[in-house]
Amino acid sequence: MSEAQVSGTHTAHIEWQDQGPLFATQAEATGLTYLRGLISGDIIAPPVAQVLGIEVVKADPGTVQFTMPVKNFFTNHLGLLAGGILSTLIDTALGCSILSAVPEDKDIVTLDLNVDFLRPVRDASGLVTVDAEVVHLGRNRGLASCRVVDSEGKLCAVGKSSCLVRSKQRPATPGTGLLDGAESRR
Asked: Which of 31, 126, 150, 182 falls 20 to 30 Å from 69 in CA-CA distance?
């Protein structure tokens, strides 16, 4: 994104690349190889991560580290990073920590998200970092927790999430634009 200021008016140009085949349709890919592909640049990040500047920095089985720049147009009426923006980063990191630990025939979806905001994050904070790890991984559900720190290493938030661990969807049915079996769920 680029930002320009004209007489107190700000504009932001939003741009992203198509991410290509969805992870959930790639039978041979594990969550860990997907995340490491994001780190190396071999895989294009989902649009939401591109737009917000969310990057995966480290990925090992059951543990990940993500960062996001704090930009002034992410702030609320108090000049603080909006809680929903930070929650999106937290949700991404928590889900990916679980994704990094599931078998190649599985993917995940968030069931719930809980965030405790401990300290305000200002746009001058620069970069926020989330370290997330799996607390429990069962056959159908995973639980993860995380810590969020600002560029000075101060703890800003903690979060936890549970995710449904499910079988990957098959590729789209030709001509429908729907994942195989999606017609029956509409």
From this structure: 31
- Shortest CA distance to 127 belongs to which of 175, 92, 89, 97? 89
End-to-end CA distance of the chain: 35
3-state secondary structure of 171: coil
Residue 163 banded pLDDT, cuts 50, 70, 90 = very high
Residue 177 confidence (pLDDT) above 80 = no
Burial 43-52 (b: 16+ CB within 10 A, else e): bebeeebbeb
Strand partners, 145: 133, 160
Find, among 162, 132, 166, the residue nearest to 146 by Cα.
Answer: 132
- Contact partners, residue 160, CB within 8 Å, separation at least 6: 94, 113, 114, 135, 143, 144, 145, 146
76 C-beta neighbours (distance < 10 Å), count: 12
Residues 6+ apart with CB under 8 A from 84: none
Query: Distance (Å, rounded) from C-alpha 85 to C-alpha 88?
Result: 5
d(CA 75, CA 182): 37
CA–CA separation, 21 vs 171, rounded Å? 9
Residue 57 contacts residue 38 (beta carbons within 8 Å): no
The Cα 126–Cα 12 span in angstroms is 18
